[in-house]
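During the reporting period the student researcher (J.K.) took over the structure-prediction task from the postdoctoral fellow and processed the backlog of single-chain submissions. One of the processed entries is reproduced below for the supervisory committee.
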Amino acid sequence: MLQLDTWQARLTATTAPASVILIRLYVGVVFLFEGIQKFLYPDALGTGRFDKAGIPAPGFFGPLDGIFEIACGALILAGLFTRLAALPMIVDMVGALLITKLPILWGDAPLFTGKSGWWNFIHESRTDLAQLCGSLFLLVVGAGAWSLDARLHRAPSQRTAQTEEA
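J.K. obtained the following structure tokens:
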């Protein structure tokens, strides 16, 4: 086996059931659509939101985040290099929680004026937490049986046997 094949095999390996597609659909659709909206509504959800949150270089990081969300969301939906796509989304969600949601706890969140305390934090964090948990899940178990990763991971002999049967 070539080195690239070994790397690819580790990256695409999954013994998870086909039902993982439900998590992939949820996580992938949310990331894909949120990424697109960063470009459709830059003042509210892209550069403007990054600026209001106090993120440095919002004109760079807003679109960059949108590009990553679109690309990784599409990869997760397809089940292609799912583990690799989940990594930047985990970083994305941790960043979103730390920068935009955690300040709610002490009432100093620029995006959520007038909100403070545990209950406001947990309410505003619900989607970020769900995306973080879904991405962590996909990192651990992989894309599942109904994915391009599973097709790529099949041994060459299995692919050849399936082709000969067809």
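The committee noted the following: The CA atoms of residues 131 and 148 lie 21 Å apart.
J.K. will present the remaining backlog at the next meeting.
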